Amino acid sequence: MQPRNKSKGRVLVEMRAGRKIVIKDYGGVVNPLVRLYGVMTLRNEARAYKRLAGIPGIPVCHGMTQAGCLELDFVAGQHLGLFKRRSVPEHIFEKLEIILKAMHGRGVANMDLHRSNVLVSDDGDVHVIDFAHAVIARDPQHPGIIARLAMQLDRYAFSRMKARFVGLAKPVPSGIFGFIYRCLKLLKRFVRALKRSASQH
Asked: What is the pLDDT of residue 60?
C-alpha cells in the first residue's frame, strides 16, 4: 500500500514460504526528519511487539531488518472503521478488552487505539495492530505515571469504540485524566500540522 502522503511510510505485503509478511518501511520518505521520525517509531513498535509476544490477538513480529524495516505476520480482517454504528456484537469488545488487559499486564499501552487499529476476522477473532506510539513501562509490575495514564487512555478509547458500535452513551473524560486527554488531542493536532508542513517541503 502506498502512503497517503509524503510523511507516511510504505506498507508492503510479501509471500514467504506460503505465508504473508507485512513490511513497514520509511526508506522511501524524502524528508530526512520525517524518515528519522518514522524509523524511531518502527523501533519503538518492534520493542512493543517483543514485549507482547505470545498474547492472542497480537500479530507475530519478526523484528527490524538491517535496512530499517519492520516485519510482522499479516492478519486478515476488517478494521472497525468499516463497520456501521451499532453493528458490532458485544462479544467482539469482550475479546478486545481481554487483549487490552493482557497488554497492560505486560506494561504496554497502545496510545493510539482507534477503529483502524482493531481488526475483526470473518470468524470473529480480534487483533490489535500498530504500536508505533506505544508507551512501554520499564517494570510491568510497577508502571510509572506516564504508563498508567497511557493505559487509561487506552481504556477510554476502548469505551468510546464500544459505545459507538454497541449503542451506549458516549463516555466523557473527567478529572485530571480529562484535562490531560484534551491536552493530548491538541498536541496530536499540532504534530499532524507539523507533518503536513514537512511533507510540503
From this structure: 96
Global pTM reads 0.83
| C-alpha distances out from residue 70 to 13, 41, 131, 172, Å | 12, 10, 11, 36
Give me the DSSP letters along 41-108. Answer: HHHHHHHHHHHTTT-TTS--EEEE-TTS-EEEE----EEGGGSPTT-S-HHHHHHHHHHHHHHHHTTE
Residue 159 corresponds to which amino acid?
S
Give me the pLDDT at residue 6, please.
54
The amino acid sitting at 120 is V
Q: What is the CB neighbour count within 10 angstroms for residue 165?
A: 21
Look up residue 201 and give its amino acid: H
DSSP classification of residue 171: P
Residue 85 C-alpha from the chain's centroid: 21
